[in-house]
């Protein structure tokens, strides 16, 4: 059953409580509030509602941002009716319909390092520690003094709120701040 059809997010949001949708097909490029912001608003107000992005182009960045905003999947508008129905059924069954391209972006995002509070030099010093180098060896390799290495270590501890090399390495490793 179709509860409503709207040309923009503002109208859809005004009628959200009245319509009580279990699924919303959301376009990204809408007049006024775009579909990414609309998706966030719907998910805030109705967390169990499934939002599927339905769009003409596979603009990977916009679709990816929609998924990050809470969309449960992605359908290309020019898909045939059977594919659209299958995608909707997949979403209701707990799946996340999307193209392989978008799925690859999602997987890659989990492999991206989080923003590090450490400077590049602090990362280099911590990398040296991870490799088991002495402060003297790190100083020689980075063309800095041993005292500068100690200062970087102190700053690393402070920024990561840790008290030991092991804890600093653990925090940096969990957040993927160290080079492999």
Structural features, described:
The longest helix has 15 residues, at 146-160. Strand 1, helix 3 (35-45) and strand 2 form a beta-alpha-beta unit. Helix 9 (146-160) crosses helix 10 (165-174). Helices cover 54% and strands 8% of the residues. The radius of gyration is 24 Å and the shape is elongated. The chain is mostly helical. The protein is built from ten helices and three strands, in the order ααβαβαβαααααα. The protein starts with 8 loop residues before the first helix and ends in a 6-residue tail after the last helix. It has a three-stranded parallel β-sheet, with helices on both faces.
Fill in the keyword field for this structure.
single chain, 180 residues, elongated
What's the SSE blueprint?
Elements: H1 9-14, H2 16-19, E1 23-26, H3 35-45, E2 50-55, H4 60-68, E3 73-76, H5 81-92, H6 100-110, H7 120-130, H8 135-142, H9 146-160, H10 165-174
Parallel strand pairs: 1-2, 2-3
Helix pairs in contact: 3-4, 7-8, 7-9, 8-9, 9-10
Order the strands across the largest sheet as they lie in space. 1-2-3
Number of helices: 10
The main sheet comes to: 3 strands, parallel
Mean pLDDT across the residues is 87
Assign a percent range to the helix content: 40-55%
Rg, nearest Å:
24 Å
Secondary structural class:
mainly alpha
Task: List the helices and strands in order.
Answer: HHEHEHEHHHHHH
Low-pLDDT sequence parts: none
Assess the beta-strand content as a share of residues: 5-15%
Instruction: Report the end-to-end length measured between terminal Cα atoms.
Output: 52 Å
């Amino acid at each position: 059953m179709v509860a409503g059809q709207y040309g923009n997010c503002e109208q859809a949001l005004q009628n959200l409580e009245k319509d009580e949708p279990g699924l919303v097909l959301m376009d990204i490029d809408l007049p006024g509030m775009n579909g990414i912001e609309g998706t966030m608003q719907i998910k805030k107000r109705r967390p169990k509602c499934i939002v599927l992005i339905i769009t003409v182009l596979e603009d990977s960045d916009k679709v990816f941002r929609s998924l990050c905003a809470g969309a449960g999947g992605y359908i290309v508008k020019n898909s045939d009716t059977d594919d659209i129905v299958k995608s909707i059924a997949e979403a209701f069954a707990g799946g996340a319909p999307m193209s392989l391209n978008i799925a690859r972006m999602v997987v890659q995002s989990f492999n991206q390092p989080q923003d590090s509070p450490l400077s590049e030099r602090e990362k280099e010093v911590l990398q040296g520690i991870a490799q088991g180098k002495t402060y003297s060896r790190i100083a020689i390799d980075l063309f800095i003094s041993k005292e500068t290495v100690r200062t970087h270590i102190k700053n690393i501890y402070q920024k990561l709120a840790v008290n030991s090399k092991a804890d600093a390495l653990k925090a940096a490793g969990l957040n993927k701040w160290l080079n492999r």
